[in-house]
Amino acid sequence: FFRLQKKRRAATARRQHLKSAMLQLAATEIEKEAAAKEVEKQNYLAEHCPPLSLPGSMQELQELCKKLHAKIESVDEERYDTEVKLQKTTKELEDLSQKLFDLRGKFKRPPLRRVRMSADAMLRALLGSKHKVCMDLRANLKQVKKEDTEKEKDLRDVGDWRKNIEEKSGMEGRKKMFEAGE
Hints:
Elements: H1 2-48, H2 58-104, H3 119-127, H4 150-158, H5 161-168, H6 170-181
C-alpha cells in the first residue's frame, strides 16, 4: 500500500514538473514571437513610411498636405474596393452553400422556441386589433358516436365459450369444421 502511494506521488510530481517545464518553454516562445513581430513591424514602417520632414515655408507645407491628402484618398479607394470584393465573395459563398444544401436535400432548420399560446392569442398577435372572433377549437369538433366494431360483434356472437367447445368436440365437430373449411 505504501509502495503504491510512493509511486503515485512520484508520478504526480513528475507530471507537475513536466507541466511547469512546458509552461516555461511556451512562455519563452511567446516572448520570442512578440520580439519577432516588433522587429517585423519596425522594418515595415521603415520601408513604407519615410521619416517626416517638415518644410519651413508655408507653400512647401501646403504641397505636403496636398500629397498626404492624395495618398489618403488612394488608400480609401483601395479599402473601399477591397470591402466591396469581400462583400461580393461572402455573398457568393452564401449562395453556393445554399445551393449545396439544396442539392443535398438537407435544410438547416432554425432553432425554434416552445411558446405556450392559445389560438386567440396567436390570432391577436398575427392580426393585431382587427381580431375579434373567439376561436374555441373544441366547439367546432363533431361528436362521433361509437360504432360497434366487427370484433365486438364477433365476441357477442360467440357467446359462452363452453358451448362452442362442446359443439366442436368429437367427430361431428371435426366434420363440421372440415366441411366449413371447404
